[in-house]
Write a structure and sequence with these properties.
The chain has 202 residues and is of the alpha+beta class. The chain has 2 domains: 71 residues, Glutaredoxin (3-Layer(aba) Sandwich), CATH 3.40.30.10; 108 residues, Glutathione S-transferase Yfyf (Class Pi), Chain A, domain 2 (Up-down Bundle), CATH 1.20.1050. The protein has 7 helices and 4 strands. A 4-stranded mixed beta sheet has the order 2-1-3-4, with helices on one face. 35% of the residues are buried. The model has no long low-confidence stretch (mean pLDDT 96).
């Protein structure tokens, strides 16, 4: 099994953590989808990471789809509930965390534009998305809908989202007035799977 991507991507990190937690052996193929000679389009026509290649040569892309595929392999630990409605609720929390990643990524790309071309309106819009999303996650961490144990695909996605905010210095001070979320991600970051998938510092 091959995972195509790079650890600067929070979506790639999410899948890597799932693979490590399930003890699935995989080859990591480091590829930057933003460069002209990227190999990612060979596996995903949209040119986005992560992409997963199975031993049978089957391609899977988009991190929620890959997470679902890995869960269907029925390898412990189970990260998504069996009951359909509970599973859907879990996937919605994953979608919320992924949406925070999306907004952070848009912010990063916008800030990479020449200053005169940057849109403060767009940056504000993305900051508001991130703030509202984090507020909801704080509430879910507070009422124990989100927990570090048992581990779930949602809690993994949340930690990867927060990890990306820290890595790219998006939404500095996000942790203020969100103690339950801070505690949740600190517990998750202490796991070996997260330690092994930290974004590169340089």
């Amino acid at each position: 099994m091959k995972l195509i991507g790079n650890y600067t991507s929070p979506y790639v990190r999410k899948i890597s953590v799932i693979l490590l937690e399930k003890g699935i052996t995989f080859e990591f193929v480091n590829d930057n989808p933003w460069v002209a000679d990227s190999h990612t389009p060979q596996y995903n026509p949209l040119g986005k990471v992560p992409a997963l290649v199975t031993a049978d040569g089957e391609y899977w892309f988009d991190s929620p789809v890959i997470a679902e595929y890995l869960e269907l392999l029925d390898i412990a630990p189970a990260l998504i509930p069996r009951e359909p409605v509970e599973a859907l609720k879990m996937r919605q929390l994953e979608a919320l965390a992924d949406g925070i990643m999306d907004a952070a990524l848009v912010s990063v790309r916008e800030q990479q534009r020449p200053p005169a071309q940057q849109s403060e309106t767009e940056l504000l819009r993305q900051r508001e998305k991130i703030s509202r999303g984090l507020d909801m996650l704080e509430a879910y961490a507070g009422d124990k809908t989100l927990t570090a144990e048992p581990l779930t695909v949602a809690s993994i996605a949340v930690a990867c989202a927060v990890g990306y905010l820290n890595f790219r210095r998006v939404s500095p001070g996000w942790c203020v007035n969100r103690p339950h979320l801070v505690k949740l991600v600190e517990e998750l970051f202490s796991r070996e799977s997260f330690a092994r998938t930290e974004p590169p510092t340089a």
